[in-house]
Amino acid sequence: MNPIRIAKNWISYRRTLNELGGLSNQALNDIGLTRHDIRNVAARSFR
Question: For all residues of the chain together, what is the average pLDDT?
Answer without folding.
Answer: 93
